[in-house]
């Protein structure tokens, strides 16, 4: 699906933005980790009733700056003021008391609590009736046009609905400053429109908003001003009306970047898939989510699967990989090179050469307290030949070095824990973990979600390189330009079925969206 939602009305800078007194200001803010500046002498200000977009590549310092503002970390040096008065938050609770709330890209909800309990978290009364709590949460969610059962445990909610609960909690806390970190990354186009309406409503009430997004078009549409960070330093702050996407990209990466190349050969002609059919899915069914889904994948091609959230795209990938089970009776068939397969656990799929790169890297993509080398090493241990790495430090080191160089993972941070890396480097580690297992069939689920514009072409190039090496590649993505950029064939999923197939040479966003909706 197309992730770019069009606003129903042009963005105008409210009069409050021109107020003399900023609601928030940061002066010479710096944060150092292990002798390296995450941000260095950054100046930033925010006015009441303003949407201020903060953009930059992964690792530019956007999240570090915002975490400092939200009290999650403390600056190494520099000062920041709220309403003109210096503050020094010791914890996020202090920031929340001052009216500052951050909605994180990777949600900070408690998984074993319900949506209603998470919204109320931190504001619980001594005696609370669950019925009253659920009714109040339902009213808040409905007022935001979020369709979520408040009694549902967060652990079983999808990524998009978790994001909605985060937003509802921020609104409930009556924050004067709300920081949105990639708020639309998991939302459908309709949900994005609702979210933009919510942002406009908050702005009209004088709420100041910091908006972090890798979707530059969104930042240009919804913001009043834009600040660009690069390598932890402030590059420019300007009115959105004076910026274009091309200007933003140049400020972000310090150069003009070429667009990700499409699935064409050097002669400019669209590539054709091979003749070896390596994976066949026939009438696979799983409950009400996947219904008689059928398709095939050939060696040496990239098959893109498009569709709205809930269309069964991710579920069919997990069924193939053994992470979900299809119906035992009338569940259909899956063939690997003509041989029927039904995996009980993903390790069996790994041993047969199937790799799956998850859409939710934080939940099950990596071990966040381990280093890059250790993540790649542990992944290799899951293969049949993994035992040899137990006794060979040389093999272990060579394996990690190869993938760090091939995927251009930040080598200077090799000793850092994964949780300390930028989102783009975390995604590269997630990809490296799967590719280190040397699969012949690789399924990418949202491969560039939360990845900056400079890293996206690198990941796309790796996907094409895998196909050129003779591997079969499946790419599941909600972003139609990505599907069109890397695919040889495009399948469209709707309501648990494959409803259309296009050759990428003739496919368009309009055709794909029409098939996904109608």
Low-confidence stretches: 1-19, 256-270
Task: Assign the structural class, choosing from mainly alpha, mainly beta, alpha/beta, alpha+beta, or little secondary structure.
Answer: alpha/beta
Contiguous helical run count = 17
Strand content: 15-25%
The percent of residues in helical segments reads 25-40%
The CATH first-level class of the largest domain comes to Alpha Beta
Could you give a short account of the major beta sheet? 6 strands, mixed
CATH architecture of the largest domain: 3-Layer(aba) Sandwich
Strand order of the largest sheet: 6-7-8-3-9-10
N- and C-termini, Cα separation = 13 Å
Q: Could you tell me the mean pLDDT?
A: 83
CATH superfamily of the largest domain: P-loop containing nucleotide triphosphate hydrolases
Give the radius of gyration.
23 Å
Our count of domains comes out at 4
């Amino acid at each position: 699906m197309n992730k770019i939602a069009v606003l129903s009305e042009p963005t105008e800078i409210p009069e409050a933005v021109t107020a003399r007194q900023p609601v928030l200001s940061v002066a010479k803010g710096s944060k150092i980790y292990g002798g390296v500046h995450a941000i260095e002498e950054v100046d930033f200000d925010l006015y009441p009733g303003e949407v201020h977009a903060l953009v930059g590549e992964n690792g530019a310092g956007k999240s570090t700056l915002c975490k400092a503002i939200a009290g999650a970390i403390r600056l190494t040096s520099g000062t920041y003021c709220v309403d003109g008065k210096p503050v020094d938050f010791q914890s996020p609770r202090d920031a929340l008391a001052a009216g500052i709330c951050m909605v994180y890209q990777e949600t900070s909800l408690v998984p074993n609590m319900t949506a209603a309990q998470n919204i109320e978290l931190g504001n619980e009364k001594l005696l609370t009736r669950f019925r009253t709590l659920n009714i109040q949460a339902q009213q808040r969610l409905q007022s935001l046009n979020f369709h979520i059962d408040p009694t549902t445990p967060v652990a079983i909610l999808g990524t998009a609905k978790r994001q909605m609960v985060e937003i509802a909690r921020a609104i409930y806390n009556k924050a004067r400053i709300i920081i949105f970190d990639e708020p639309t990354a998991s939302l459908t186009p309709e949900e994005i429109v609702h979210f933009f309406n919510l942002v406009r409503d908050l702005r009209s009430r004088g709420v100041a908003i910091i908006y972090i997004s890798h979707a530059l078009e969104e930042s240009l549409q919804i913001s009043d001003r834009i600040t660009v960070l690069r390598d932890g330093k402030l590059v420019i702050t300007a009115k959105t009306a004076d910026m274009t996407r091309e200007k933003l990209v140049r400020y972000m990466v310090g150069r003009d970047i070429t667009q990700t190349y499409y699935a064409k050969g050097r002669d400019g002609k669209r590539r054709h898939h091979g003749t070896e059919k390596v994976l066949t899915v026939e009438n696979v069914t799983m409950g009400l989510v996947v219904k008689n889904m059928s398709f095939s994948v050939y060696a040496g091609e990239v098959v893109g699967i498009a569709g709205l959230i809930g269309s069964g795209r991710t579920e069919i990938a997990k069924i193939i990989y053994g992470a979900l089970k299809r119906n035992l009776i009338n569940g259909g068939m899956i063939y690997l090179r003509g041989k029927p397969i039904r995996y009980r656990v993903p390790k069996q799929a790994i041993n047969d050469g199937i790799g799956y790169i998850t859409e939710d890297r934080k939940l099950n993509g990596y071990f966040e307290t381990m280093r890059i080398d250790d993540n790649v090493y542990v992944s290799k241990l899951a293969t049949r030949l993994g035992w040899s790495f137990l006794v060979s430090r040389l093999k272990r080191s060579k394996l990690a070095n190869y993938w760090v160089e091939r995927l251009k993972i930040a080598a200077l941070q090799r000793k850092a824990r994964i949780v300390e890396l930028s989102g783009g480097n975390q995604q590269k580690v997630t990809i490296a973990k799967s590719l280190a297992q040397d699969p012949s069939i690789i399924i990418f689920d949202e491969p560039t979600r939360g990845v900056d514009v400079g890293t996206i072409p690198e990941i796309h190039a790796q996907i094409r390189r895998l196909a050129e090496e003779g591997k079969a590649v499946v790419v599941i993505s909600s972003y139609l330009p990505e599907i069109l950029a890397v695919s040889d064939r495009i399948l469209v999923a709707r309501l648990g079925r494959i409803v259309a197939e296009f050759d990428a040479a003739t496919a368009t966003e309009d055709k794909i969206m029409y098939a996904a909706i109608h």
